[in-house]
Specification:
Number of helices: 2
Largest sheet: 16 strands, antiparallel, barrel
Oligomer: single chain
Helix content: under 10%
CATH topology: Porin
CATH superfamily: Porin
Length: 382
């Protein structure tokens, strides 16, 4: 085994098999709690690329997230968490505390950081969190995905640096407002080109959401969210001027019981619209004018069909002007089947088969890109 492969392979075998048992024996002081998860498995991607070439990539991959929470007083929480992702195909390994991720979708394989380091205060019906933390607003279902805000999906590592305020409203509604910092070198969560944060006015951006998870008849989820990124959109390319990028998203899930054994059918719907989008030419697409800014996903789920076992089907489309999601690539459409087995409150197995292709053929390429990928993964939550 080469030195390049030794670390990730040891982490996969040791982390997934022995870590849960070892962590269970750790005794912490009063007010301290260990939290996080270990997730890993086998990943396979077959690609028919835009130049007509074909390629197959496979690896064993693991993401380790382990942190400590401390409650020095009744309403206060301090937390910090290590997060690293490793693969049998990585080139190197490193740890860094940067304000930005190394790619538009997060850390590269072999990289690690602190994905949480925050102070939180819990008031009466409201809370405030300051520092580095995770923000996720996903559509309910077996394959939880989000159009606009979903930090660290799958084995990715992204984060939010800033301030989050949440408040309980009437009738089960909750408001969330996030003000986040964007480094000049790049964002810390998923943002796609031609979004860029080199302009001084792009340092701070905003996100706000209203969400209700209390059942209302067959409706089990209702959510609305808005994103505002000032001076981050280079509609005519990075050599042009910067403009604001704003988007609105809405999601809902409806659930019907199937018999009296706890199984149910869940239908999930989410749609988003970006108001100002890059030009077709900027995205490398034929035609003139602005690119479309619509995105949507729909999921069909058989939940707990057999105790602990669920299966879901997801279809989605993201136009070239939708630039916010780690789950949906601009100018692409996707179909995915996901199987999940929740062994207990700590352990789960998942298998995914996904097909994704370009919506429109880019200029000066031979064909659309087509990806077929599969994974089998295990997650232990502690």
């Amino acid at each position: 085994m080469t030195n390049r492969l030794a670390l990730p392979v040891l982490l996969v075998s040791g982390g997934l098999v022995f870590s849960p048992l070892a962590l269970a024996d750790i005794e912490l002081g009063e007010g301290l709690a260990l939290y996080g998860n270990v997730r890993g498995g086998y990943f396979n991607l077959r690609r028919e690329d835009r130049d007509g070439s074909k390629d197959t990539r496979e690896d064993w991959r693991v993401r380790v997230r382990a942190g400590l929470q401390w409650q020095p007083a009744e309403r206060w929480t301090l937390a910090a968490r290590f997060a690293g992702r490793y693969s049998t195909n990585q080139d190197d390994h490193s740890f860094a505390l940067d304000w930005h991720a190394t790619s538009p979708t997060g850390l590269a394989l072999g990289e690690a950081t602190l994905d949480e380091a925050y102070a939180a205060y819990q008031g009466d019906g409201w809370s405030l969190k300051v520092g580095r933390f995770q923000v996720s607003h996903e559509l309910d279902g077996v394959a939880k995905k989000g159009l606009d805000r979903n930090d660290s999906p799958n084995t990715d590592i992204t984060w939010t640096d800033g301030v989050q305020w949440q408040m309980d409203l009437a009738a089960g509604w909750q408001a969330t407002v996030v003000a986040d910092y964007n480094d000049r070198e790049g964002p810390s969560n998923a943002r796609h080109k031609p979004l860029d944060f080199s302009a001084s006015n792009a340092r701070l951006s905003g996100f706000a959401a209203l969400e209700n998870a209390e059942p209302w008849g067959v409706v089990v989820q209702r959510s609305f969210s808005v994103t505002y990124l000032p001076d981050a959109l280079y509609a005519r390319g990075l050599d042009g001027s910067a403009g604001d990028y704003s988007a609105l998203a809405a999601r809902t899930a409806l659930q019907w019981p199937l018999g009296d054994n706890g199984s149910a059918f869940l239908l999930g719907l989410e749609a988003g619209h970006a108001f100002d989008t890059p030009r077709q030419a900027t995205m490398g697409l034929p035609g003139s004018g602005d690119s479309d800014g619509l995105a949507w996903q729909v999921s069909f789920n058989l939940m707990n069909l057999v105790p602990g076992h669920s299966i879901g089907l997801v279809g989605s489309r993201a136009d070239a002007g939708w630039l916010l999601s780690p789950d949906f690539i601009p100018n692409s459409e996707m179909v995915e089947v996901r199987y999940q087995w929740r062994v207990d409150k700590h352990q789960s197995f998942e298998a995914r088969l996904r097909y994704r292709e370009d919506l429109d053929k880019l200029l000066s390429v031979a064909s659309e890109r087509q990806d077929t990928d599969f994974y089998l993964r295990y997650t232990y939550k502690f």
